[in-house]
Amino acid sequence: DYFTDENRVLKKDPQQDYHLEYAMENSTHTVLAFSRELHTCDTNDKSITESTVRVIWAYHHKDMGEAGKNYHGSNRGTKSLRLLNPEREEVSSASLPYFDLTNKDVPVPDKDTTYWCQMFKIPVQHEKHHVTKVEPLIQKGHENLVHHILLYQCSSNLNDSVLDYGHECYHPNMPDSFLTCETVIFAWAVGGEGFTYPPHVGLSIGTAADPLFVLMEVHYDNPSYTEGL
């Protein structure tokens, strides 16, 4: 159980709150399983909650000896995780109707950050319905590419011509129709999962006051500047 100070110096925590459960090693993997209280009342520990947390990891190929820790070099990384998943009551049925809003073949530039906007039309309903669950739909293998997704409600005075193209968000040449989309009705970020509304709540669709056109903003993250994604 170590912690770092404001100068990034690693120090042994006088209050040891992490407990090794077991350890194993083979020719390719080292596994250390440990446990800790969610709230340790230790100012050097971060409380574990249901929120998304940024986990930082690093390792050295040699074990830590009497001389102390070894610098990890390039063996380091980060990942956004929800260490605690809130209990989910499955109220949805496989027979319930659903619809997907998906980008098609978006070329992700070889730059760190890209915000891509695409307009969609909610499938026409002839009477009031309620959306009871929303979840991210991410192409397999591209999980590290999608950083967050926002869904905005747009003006109801638009027509289907706005559906023909996507465009980079916040660009000087962004279509004027995108500027009518101001109210966020759903948000997802890396480390999160789907969202199920409480049993007595839903997002209304199908009436004149409900969203008909929505704008999906996807933040693509390409820190390695990989081409051809």
UniProtKB/TrEMBL annotation:
Gene: Moxd1
GO annotation, biological process: dopamine catabolic process; norepinephrine biosynthetic process; octopamine biosynthetic process
Gene Ontology CC terms, in alphabetical order: extracellular space; secretory granule membrane
Gene Ontology molecular function: copper ion binding; dopamine beta-monooxygenase activity
Membrane topology: Single-pass membrane protein
UniProt name for this protein: MOXD1 protein
PROSITE patterns associated with the record: DOMON
Main localisation: membrane
CDD domains noted in UniProt: DOMON_DOH
SUPFAM superfamilies assigned to the protein according to its UniProt record, in alphabetical order: PHM/PNGase F
Domain DOMON stretches: 1-60
Keywords of the record: Membrane, Metal-binding, Monooxygenase, Oxidoreductase, Transmembrane, Transmembrane helix
Family named by the database record: Belongs to the copper type II ascorbate-dependent monooxygenase family.
Subcellular location: Endomembrane system
Tree of life domain: Eukaryota
Organism annotation: Anthoscopus minutus
Essential cofactor(s): Cu(2+)
InterPro entries attached to this UniProt entry: Cu2_ascorb_mOase_N, Cu2_ascorb_mOase_N_sf, DBH-like, DOH_DOMON, DOMON_domain, PHM/PNGase_F_dom_sf, Tbh/DBH
